Amino acid sequence: MSKKLIDFLKPPEHWKVPVILAAGVFVGLGFYVFYVSRAHSYLSDDPKTCVNCHIMAPQFATWSHSAHREVATCNDCHVPHDNVFNTYFFKAKDGMRHATIFTMRAEPQVIFIQEEGRNVVQQNCIRCHEQLITDDKLLAHKPDVHRDIDGRLCVDCHRETPHGRVNSLSSVPNARVPVPESPLPDWLKDLKEK
User: What is the distance between the alpha carbons of residues 56 and 168, in angstroms, rounded to a whole number?
Assistant: First the structure.
């Protein structure tokens, strides 16, 4: 950087302390929001992360009672796996959309997967089950079942895999899902109780 630019960005001497304090407050608030929102948990593949927002409880409950829970996490199906950059870019973009909708309390009663997410799920179905849809020995009884599907998606026929029929929060009213731990430190909880 040139000296002129540095001098331009440098606050006047009498503004240094307020600028440093304001920057500290914003940085501190940024870290606090990162911690309270459990943003770090979204870097993992733990399915419990998906129930940080209560709205995903039916999806978690139905997945946890499916055969897929033994071999696939949420990210195995709902995130692209073609390269690491695309994986985390998609997670970040989709996560920001989810966080915005949830923060604005604009979540729908019935959750539908978006078009981009539907395409990712289709690619991952094929990635994991390629042998089932291409092996002639496995297809001996119905050889044309997965050929010439005219652009249909796997979920068009396998609609209830792995979530069953989840239409709304009332679909699984007694589902037991992990409740996220409170991000509040104990000393703050003690103050709240007084």
Answer: 10
Whether residue 67 is found in the same domain as residue 25:
no
Residues 6+ apart with CB under 8 A from 168: 58, 109, 110
On whether the CB atoms of residues 171 and 58 are closer than 8 A, the answer is: yes
Query: pLDDT tens digits, the chain, 194 residues: what are they?
Result: 577 888 787 778 888 889 889 999 999 999 988 887 777 788 888 888 888 776 788 888 888 888 898 999 999 999 999 999 999 999 989 888 888 888 788 888 777 888 999 999 999 998 998 887 777 776 666 666 666 666 788 888 888 888 877 655 555 666 677 766 777 777 777 776 76
**Residue 60 exposed, middle or buried by CB count within 10 Å (0-12, 13-18, 19+):** buried
Q: Are residues 32 and 87 in the same domain?
A: no
Query: What are the angstrom distances between the C-alpha of 184 and each of 32, 170, 188?
Result: 10, 29, 6
Q: How many separate domains does the chain show?
A: 2
| DSSP secondary structure string for all residues of 64-76 | HTSGGGGT--HHH
Domain boundaries, position 34 = 12-43
